[in-house]
Design a protein that fits this description.
The protein has two domains: about 15-135, 3-Layer(aba) Sandwich (Rossmann fold); about 145-220, Rossmann fold, CATH 3.40.50. Helix content is about 50%, strand content about 10%. It has helices at about 20-35, 45-55, 75-85, 100-105, 120-130, 140-155, 165-175, 180-190, 190-205, 210-220; strands at about 15, 35-40, 60, 90-95, 110-115, 135. A six-stranded parallel sheet has the order 2-1-3-4-5-6, with helices on both faces. Helix 1 links the parallel strand 1 (about 15) and strand 2 (about 35-40). Helix 3 (about 75-85) runs parallel beside helix 4, helix 7 (about 165-175) packs across helix 10 (about 210-220) and helix 8 (about 180-190) packs across helix 9 (about 190-205). The protein is globular, with a radius of gyration of 18 Å. The relative contact order is 0.10.
Length: about 220
């Protein structure tokens, strides 16, 4: 991360990967004007993988489908996460197809945002992704949760799950749908500190490392209301 802006928040380094020049340049410009540092842009997954080690962004905004041959956005995401696990990938796609959302999350993306999102929604999604949250366009989280509930029933994983308290399970369900700690605290009428304590306790029990992994675990095991 680079130095700080006047509001005291560190500036996230961003990489934008998209094969449409006007869209790619427009997103890069808009994020730059909102205080992010756009470290690089790339025309497709192959180009992104060639330059990512040199620029080491905090967040990669990844399209899913490129006109050129080479790895898809999901395949590129998997390569990035496998090679640089500290880099977070936020998919920014025109597609809301079930298979595309599922492929992106399975590849390790931290979230999925539709290109129809407003600039304010994009800025907030990038900020939250950099902070470690799982972020989804409204409606896509429900689609994803439904699919993983079906998969969980098919695999019957419930008997293998570590024991969580009722409150830890409630917090986990909220994390899975992309809520912030503050939103969870308000919904459950508990303090922000208590939410964080439950999150840390659950991470230890499940032997996970961050909120993105926690959200993915909850979704995969059908821990939703």
């Amino acid at each position: 991360m680079t130095d700080c802006r006047g509001d005291g928040r560190s500036v996230s380094r961003i990489m934008v990967v998209d094969d449409h020049p006007m869209w790619r340049d427009g997103v890069a410009r808009d994020l730059g004007e909102r205080g992010f540092e756009v470290a690089a842009t790339a025309v497709d997954g192959a180009a992104a993988l060639r330059i990512i080690a040199a620029v080491r962004p905090d967040v990669v905004l990844m399209d899913l489908h490129f006109g050129s041959e080479g790895p898809s956005g999901a395949e590129t995401t998997r390569c990035i996460i496998d090679s640089w696990p500290d880099i977070k990938v936020l998919v920014l796609s025109a597609s809301g197809a079930h298979a595309d959302v599922l492929a992106a999350v399975q590849a390790g993306a931290s979230g999925y945002l539709m290109k129809s999102a407003s600039l304010d929604e994009l800025v907030e999604a990038v900020r939250r992704t950099a902070e470690g949250d799982a972020v989804f366009t409204a409606g896509l989280a429900g689609l994803l949760l439904g699919e993983y509930r079906r998969m969980a029933r098919d695999r019957d994983r419930e008997s293998d799950m570590p024991r969580l308290t009722e409150r830890e399970t409630e917090v986990l369900r909220q994390v899975a749908t992309g809520h912030t700690a503050r939103q969870i605290a308000d919904a459950l009428v508990i303090s922000h500190r208590t939410v964080e304590n439950h999150v840390q306790s659950t991470l230890r029990k499940l032997q996970l490392h961050n909120r993105v992994e926690l959200a993915r675990y909850a979704i995969e095991h059908g821990l939703t209301q």
